[in-house]
Amino acid sequence: MPVQRLHTDRRLSEINIHNGTVYLAGQLADDFSGDIYQQTRETLANVDKFLAEAGSDKEHILVVTIFLRDIALHFEGMNRAWDEWAAQGATPGRTTVEAKLAKPDILVEMNVIAAVKA
């Protein structure tokens, strides 16, 4: 079964679809000048956009890995945005870890794996 890749450049593909599963590259906010709440909301909006393009949505997310620059400082604000966004009754498996992200002003990054909607 072939792999479908969308938004591909020399470094990565934002969306990879294989055998009914969607794999998103690490998703970020569009604007890194905001606080964790704003960056999380933007990151989740990008997740929504790419999942829709791949034929999926947040109710079909299987697992999310969330990387926070400072878990002690940012966990509460990230969770506030997450709780507003998450599909109640269809929340995915989730892991949240502290990580040294690519740039100092990036506060959150998310990796998402989802099922394609039937």
UniProtKB/TrEMBL annotation:
InterPro entries: RutC-like_sf (IPR035959), YjgF/YER057c/UK114 (IPR006175), YoaB-like (IPR035709). CDD domains: YjgF_YER057c_UK114_like_2. Gene3D superfamilies: RutC-like. SUPFAM superfamilies: YjgF-like. It comes from the Bacteria. This is RidA/YER057c/UK114 family protein. It comes from Pseudomonas oryzihabitans.
